[in-house]
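User: Could you go from structure to sequence for me? I need the amino acid at each position, not a summary. Structure tokens:
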């Protein structure tokens, strides 16, 4: 493995931001991990990890080495009386992995179909959609400790998962390269169809199967969300903010149509897409970027944009929402600068 290769990353991030890495490593075998450790040491411990590039905002020139995780492999590790334990390597494409699970009768990930990105990225922001978060299905995360140069496994509890967040998004989780993820998939499958878009589908209400949920989720996502292969985007650009019951109640008085979801701890999640739309940003552009015309939470690249364009639009949207609703939106994708 060489550590002196420059790489154009424009085609390796789904927002398609113009970006270039001064040093780039393709990691396609676990045998190369000790070499990654040496590279990290040479770089003073500061590197960037790239998977499917679907949750990133890349600056134009990246000086830290970029390690591209292309590790492959899916295997059934264990069958317990109540679960299948399935391991997938970090470089596996997430959607293909979900489809493989369904083909093998390992159910429980179907609500997360068609999410762009890799298996290695799924625990980082705790991907979630249509009533399921990946933390509900993760048994453990296998990593390579880049500082000590040895494997280290994290239990789901150690990963400190919460809504679109985990240890791996925090400074304490930066020294680990995710080599594989182990999933606990229940043998006794029960459908999760509580999300409004699913429970309004009569076929699912009548007879939900994993395949039918998989197909329905793919249909809904294709109808609502722009395909990164056609227009650059990173899915939801902001998190849905969580506020206290008191703030939610005040906001509901002022804006009765505001979409909110009660959380188990009594707080409320607000639909950021609704608020962004109310501020007039749905379908609006600013330079080379804009907020999507069907889903205002998704920031899209109309062509040739850089991180500067993206961050300028994000700041403008944050300012509008703060002014109108007194709520501060937080960016969801991670910034490499
Ligand atoms: N809405 C609007 N206008 C918009 C967008 C949404 O009024 O422009 C309203 C919708 O009508 C709906 C509510 O807001 O009543 C929620 O919209 P939606 O069901 O599309 O979900 P979301 O809250 O915008 C979240 C996730 C998505 C995930 C969906 C489905 C976050 C940040 N986003 O979006 O995740 O697919 O729920 O579970 O939590 C992603 O993270 O990249 C992502 C796409």
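Assistant: Here is the amino acid at each position, in order:
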């Amino acid at each position: 493995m060489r550590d002196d290769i420059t790489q154009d990353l424009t085609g390796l991030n789904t927002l398609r931001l113009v970006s270039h890495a001064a040093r780039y490593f393709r990691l396609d075998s676990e045998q190369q991990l000790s070499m990654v450790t040496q590279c990290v040491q040479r770089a003073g411990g500061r590197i960037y990890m790239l998977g499917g590039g679907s949750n990133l905002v890349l600056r134009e020139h990246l000086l830290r080495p970029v390690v591209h995780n292309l590790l492959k492999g899916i295997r059934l590790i264990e069958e317990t009386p109540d679960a299948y334990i399935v391991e997938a390597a970090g470089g596996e494409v997430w959607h293909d992995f979900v489809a493989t699970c369904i083909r093998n009768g390992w159910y429980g990930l179907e609500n997360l179909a068609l999410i762009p990105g890799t298996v290695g990225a799924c625990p980082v922001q705790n991907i979630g959609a249509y009533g399921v978060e990946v933390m509900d299905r993760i048994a453990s995360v296998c990593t390579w400790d880049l500082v000590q140069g040895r494997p280290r496994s994290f239990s789901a509890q150690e990963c400190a998962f919460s809504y679109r967040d985990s240890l791996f998004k925090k400074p304490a989780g930066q020294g680990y390269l995710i080599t594989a993820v182990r999933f606990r998939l229940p043998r006794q499958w029960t459908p999760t169809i509580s999300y409004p878009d699913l429970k309004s589908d009569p076929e699912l209400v009548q007879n939900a199967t994993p395949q039918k949920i998989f197909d329905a989720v793919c249909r809904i996502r294709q109808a609502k969300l722009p395909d990164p292969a056609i227009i650059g985007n990173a899915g939801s650009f902001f998190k849905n903010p969580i506020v206290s019951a008191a703030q939610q109640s005040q906001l509901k008085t002022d804006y009765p149509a505001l979409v909110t979801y009660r959380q188990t701890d009594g707080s409320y999640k607000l639909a950021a897409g609704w608020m962004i739309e109310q501020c007039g940003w749905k379908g609006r552009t600013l330079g080379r970027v804009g907020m999507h015309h069907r889903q205002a939470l998704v920031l899209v690249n109309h062509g040739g944009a850089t991180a500067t364009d993206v961050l300028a639009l994000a700041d403008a949207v944050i300012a509008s929402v703060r002014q109108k609703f007194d709520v501060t939106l937080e960016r969801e994708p991670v910034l490499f600068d």
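One structural detail worth keeping in mind: The helical segments are 33-42, 94-103, 196-199, 202-207, 210-224, 245-254, 272-278, 307-325.
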